[in-house]
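User: Predict the structure for this protein chain, please.
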Amino acid sequence: MSSYDIALVLDADTLNQAMSKLYANSQAKQKLFQGTEPIGQDGIKSVDWAIVGAPQFVLSPPTAAQWNDPNTFTPGGKKPANPTDQMFQVQIAQLTTTIHMDQGTDVSPTFAMTVFAQVAVVKDQIQLSNVAVLPSTSTPAGTIYLELVGGIVYGKVQTLLNGYHIPASIAVEGQNFTPPVMTVGNGYLVVASNLVASGTPDIAGVQWPAVPLGVLAGRRLLAAVLNQYAGAIVQKLDSASVNKSDSNWTGSYSLDGGITNASVALSSTLPNVNITATFGATATVDVSWWLVPAACALETASNLL
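Assistant: Here is the predicted structure, written as structure tokens:
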């Protein structure tokens, strides 16, 4: 039986939209998606490389076939024996290169890359870290350069992942939560916590709703908040941004002031709660979903420029 009190749910499309917008930025494209890497060994002077098209997130762990492929490796380290359900994929459909030789003719093989990464929580932020890379090429001359080019791309993808700042949970006034548990699968990244008194959450087998980005509040949490504040619910977010009209935000984020006629009802299909309430100064609002801005990943990734 699944059990959680609050969960952050993020889908692949949200991450991919941010990556596509970053790729479309000419300054970002020049700095983050192409370049020249000096080599100076094995008769190779340098490698020009360019990612063609925005890399795509696949929020599913690597398959056994991918993980056990003889070309899958961890640059500068040892590949873990098995993948975990905290892993996901970043796929690069086409990578063009020109390999400049110390002597002889330069070669220009084309590659495809799948980088395997994992999620972890570090200092209350979700950290996305590379684990291994699977390079491939349809250019016969490129086979001997798989490891070289795979290592270059491995580092470049990590730079892109570092730009994604995702909170491990949403702070709720007056409530303390357990360390989160995480899972990746079926196109979603999920980070869930329980109220401390409820122990470690269990999210095995949960059917997550088809929303791109959201925070789900469970019955125990909403009951605790209602009990604590009686006539008012306060969701502690950035009021400077929340209370302004902003197309990057969707839904209701701040519940301040006189609330009357509050009601709590279980969803018919999910272990979540719908809250409706009437505000003294505003109309009735539905706060079943607390959403975070879909633009957050793009905005932080832009800090790399």
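Residues 36-163 form one domain.
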